[in-house]
Amino acid sequence: MSAMRDELHSLVDQLPEDQVPPVLALVRENIAATRRREGAALTLERIRERMRGVTGVDEELHRLRDESRD
Q1: Backbone dihedral region for residue 58 (phi beyond 0: left; psi -120 to 50: alpha; all else: beta)
Q2: Could you give the 3-state DSSP secondary structure of residue 60?
Q3: Cα dihedral 20, 26, 30, 32 in deg (nearest 10)
Q4: What is the pLDDT along the chain (70 residues), one digit of tens a residue?
């Protein structure tokens, strides 16, 4: 196990029991958000592959991606 994981385990062990659920919820949401972003990136890449050679597709995908960050 990495030093950072060891530290995380140690910190969680130090938490009062009533503070564990909100921390756990934050970690779960972070994992879910990461998976959603990865899924969206894969979807955009599949679209890009299917639309290769169609004029303006890359620019439109970049525009949509940039708008989603605002």
Answers
A1: alpha
A2: helix
A3: 90
A4: 799 999 999 999 999 999 999 999 999 999 999 999 999 999 988 888 887 777 777 788 788 888 876 6
How many Å apart are CA 12 and CA 5, to the nearest integer? 10
Choose among 59, 38, 70: nearest CA to 46: 38
State pTM to two decimals.
Answer: 0.57
Q: Which amino acid is at 1?
A: M
Distance of CA 8 to the CA centre of its chain: 20
State the Cα–Cα distance between residues 70 and 66, nearest whole angstrom: 7
